[in-house]
UniProtKB/TrEMBL annotation:
Its EC number is 2.7.13.3. GO terms for molecular function: ATP binding. This is histidine kinase. The lineage of its organism: Bacteria, Pseudomonadati, Bacteroidota, Chitinophagia, Chitinophagales. The chain crosses the membrane at residues 399-419. It catalyses: ATP + protein L-histidine = ADP + protein N-phospho-L-histidine. PROSITE patterns: HIS_KIN (PS50109), TPR (PS50005), TPR_REGION (PS50293). Pfam families: HATPase_c, HisKA_3, TPR_8. The keyword Cell membrane does not apply.
Amino acid sequence: MEIKSLLFIVYIGLFTQKAIAQTPAIDSLQQLVSRENNPEKKVFLLYEIVNLQSEQDTGIAYHTLRAARTMAKDTRYLQAFDPFYEAQIIWMSDSAKTKQLYQQAIELLKDYKTPKALQITARAWHNYGIFLQVSGRQDEFTNILLNKVIPAFKQIDDRVSVASAYNAVGTVYSNKEDYQTALTYFKQAIEYVQGNEASIKRSMVLADANISSARCVFYLNKDLPEMYTYLERSRPYLEQVGDPVYYADYYVNLGRYYEAQAKYEQALSQFDKGLDYAEKSPTTVIFKVMLTYEKANVLMQLKQYNEARAILDHLLAKNASDFTLDNRAKTLQLRAEIEAGMGNYAAAYQSLKLGGEMSDSLHKLQEKAKITEIKLKYNDSEQENKILKLENVNRRNHFFMMLIGLFLYLSGIIFYIFLRHRKKRNLQQLKLLASEKEIEVKNALIYGEEQERKRLARELHDGLGGTFAGIKLKLEIAVKKMDIHDISTCVGLLDNAINEFRHTTHRLVPEHLRNKGLENNVKDFCDSFRASGIEFRFYFKGLNLLHSDEKELIIFRIIQELVTNAVKHSKAQHILLNCILENRLLLLTVEDDGIGFDPVIEKKGMGLQNIKSRINMLNGTMHIDSEKDKGTVINIEIAL
């Protein structure tokens, strides 16, 4: 269960809190306006007052903006800032017009290179990008930050704003679970303001960057000492900011630090502290959800099942808008684990079913049973109402209706018992099918291994066998003639033979597959093609959850075949390999930018047939998307 960036989650909350503290600043600026004689400086002072008043009273802000417009009406440069400040007034009430005004400000200011123009341009781009980010257009937002916002702030040497933008970029990558890239940008944010003088905004940036870095380190490699170092570095900045939202995020991660070490009592203490801070601000709903989830998880580890279940029940009763469907599903899954720990397997099954873990057939059976029970109760209620209405009219009709109600009730019970019996029978059949499928996979694996041995023998005989025979003959002649040039040629041939031998051995299962894991061995195999000039990019997730040597072997063979085909035939410059295991579903993608091919024509080739047969062993599916000169994308899904 994860959250979005502090910079975006607390944006509205900070807006509200800042509004309370703006009155003294507004008074000071108004005094400066009354004493200022320079028209340009006076207009900019009025603009700043508009910016502060927009967080308190939009009516008053518009009144001040009209005064600024009157003074700036004869100056094109000053008028160029007007759309930005109007957008600041209405951005919470009219998103479409707000975005239009930000774009208008950017267009009007593009010809001016003054520090003020560059600052407002950067802020307009940033605020416009926030609307894209909220609507899910993360890549566009990242592009704006890197190519518009950061360069503009760098031109005016606003290092704190640059660091804040780097934090935002890191957050986008963190949300996409690219924690290595995210960590790079968080580190840049920290380094960029390390030497700056203290300020609240600097402390906010450093607190967010250090806490976010700790979270990335945790998800990357669980390097707990490094994670703790980042959290400790954030402490002084948290105290300077003093915002409950930052403290809530801090204690979420500190609790995870102790939880990863199985120090559950200490973890529980941190989550409770975080919840105390979360109660102090209306903008910490997402942290309340996260801290509650983490607390329940720790209580489960401590076998305090009743308290953990009560916490999750309260959490699940919240409004759906408080947390995402994905987080709700994970919460249901945790509840199922708690119920299973208590021995309540029926309740655990219900939680899994609600979370989408059970098959469609079982889900439908449960839904039918539930609907039948509801109908039965409804019919009973209707019959009772009718009896009450007719009781004073006809005793005989009353007795007749009671008989009907009893009949319906008994019929419902019989039907319910029938459904329960049918469900048990279906579960037994599913277990039997699973056992048979496992036997089929093992048999297919044995057959596949035998075929692999035969193929390897042919490759060694036809490839290296002939090569070594030729080297031997050439070396004998060279020795007789004492020809140094021919001997050097033989050495070159031996190098080629060694390279071919290494390439052949990489097609085998690596000797340490079990110890090094599937991910490292795939990387080692791809590294053997380094001389081809192809650049490989990898993304792996959850492969440590694959606890079957047989299935790991088949998946490794599939990846070998796909990568080998791409290297030999595609003429690609880049190959992207994604391998993700989540919720017992393996998603494998191999994408290249090569010459492509027609899948209809090539589908009968031995390479694709071998891959398909291995996928069939695991009851998976494969989809090929390729055209001539447009590269190839192969997607494989396997339910494990």
